Amino acid sequence: METLVEEAVANALRRDGSSEAIRLYVSACTERMAPLFMGLRASAPGREADLDFYAESVRDLWYIDRPLADAAERVRLLERFPEFQPDEEGITDVADTYAFFAVLCLRYALLAHGPGDVDDAVSCGHAALTAMGMLDQNVAGASFLAEEQRLQSLSLSGDASGLWDASVTAGRERFRAVLGRLPR
After folding, report:
1. Domain count, the chain
2. How far is CA 139 from CA 14, 74, 100, 128, 134, in A?
3. Which of 10, 27, 42, 87 has the fewest CB atoms below 10 angstroms from its CB?
4. Residue 1 above 50 pLDDT?
């Protein structure tokens, strides 16, 4: 498999990555992963507050003109999610696996969004690419990894409106693919 976060993307973030460019990059990555958490946890009892918090955080990430003042507090709240609480078995369920990657992506996005940290932004992209690589391995003929790489490169263009549309569409396609892998 290729390097997950393409060197060109990582270098562009490091070289030219203004705080706004970094925030756009992580916002888009998280938008594409959001349906995996929201959809896979929508019917989980007792997770209503988590779903609201996740959706609000994804929405707020798109305010790329300014850092989230409460990013550190949001990270602390997110780290209390069950997806981050280890157990003896680890993550073995399909839904749990993809929900974990969606939460991990949001965690790194929040860390990057505050100060505009490039390393956290790269980790956010890495989480999305890892999940899509796994999905490609488990869905015949899928090309989710290549699409994620393309969209990550596109996110460096600075066009938030077109990127948002593409990210929403990609997120829905991912969710449908994961639903197809769930036991009936």
Report:
1. 1
2. 33, 33, 19, 16, 9
3. 87
4. no
